[in-house]
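User: Okay, second chain of the day. Same drill as before: sequence in, structure tokens out.
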Amino acid sequence: MVAALSGVFATAAHAQSSVTLYGLIDAGLTYTNNQNGSHNFKMTSGAVNGSRWGLRGSEDLGGGLKAIFTLENGFSIANGTLGQQGREFGRQAFVGLSSNQFGTVTLGRQYDSVVDYLGPLALTGTQYGGTQFAHPFDNDNLDNSFRINNSVKYQSANYAGFKFGALYGFSNQADGFANNRSYSVGASYNYGPLNIAAAYLQLNNNITAGAINNANGAVAGDNTFNAGLQRTFGAGLNYAFGPATVGFVFTQTKLEDAASINGATVGNTGNIAIGNYARFNNYELNAHYALTPALSLAGAYTYTDARLDGEKPSFHQFSLQTAYSLSKRTDVYLQGEYVHALDLGDSGIGAPINGVGMSSTPNQVSATVGIRHRF
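Assistant: Same drill. Structure tokens below.
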């Protein structure tokens, strides 16, 4: 009798909660014509989507309320090392409550609102380009080069296609509430084939000798820029008709009390010094088309107009990808990028392709053939 009742209770508990193991592995071979002055042919991990594995779980609490969690690890398939500066669950780590009626509140290391709402409208935030399609230095974080630590996030339910959310990342410093904190807001609206979105992100930091002076705050180690203040905002839209989708995204990032571009997003060039003030305007036109249910074609053009310590560099970036699905979980892809930089002056930078490195000249070309497997 005890054994039978134990079996009944175990079955009931299992029906009310679940844990899912999931992941994605992206491996490729990349050729670059100029990486820090030399051509390079190398193996890459995450040329489109960062390799990861994770645990996702939920428990039904009744009345449309659930307890949820996600623990997601990033790694390099090329050498097996941890990503996100060696963090065990560097991509995501959060727990919270989700209501069908009122939305979701989560706490932990999470994506900001620019990634959540605007990222899906740019090719760099999707499976159609990902890492290497990011805007120069991923200056607007659409490719989620960094996440927000110590964060509380709210995401609304879907109200007839309208969703909104906000995030706050604490500094965790007793005598410096605003030192290395972050906040962001965003919203999106879907009406049939039309999608529109807008978002804002702000980072507040004290920096010393070109580094953030609070390693336990909202961002540390993997942030794109070392600056006292970063403001990023943007908006975009896309429209689907039949098998095709076209879109436009605009973002602007402004830096004050700036020191450097973090080498973690540029390649093996170390930090690159920039002036006290910097600004990046990004204009992206993109499209993707399903040639067949298994074969897709995607492309983007991005113009970036920048200001760096009195210099006025600009970047023209052309990106193209084709992918063929071998099954629902496995596909192979071929993609390439070309970046042409103008008016670099004495900025000390060249033509950058995210995840590849930076050229010693105003031009850079890269091509990758790879495979992705999801589980």
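The chain has one domain: 17-374.

User: Thanks, on to the next one.
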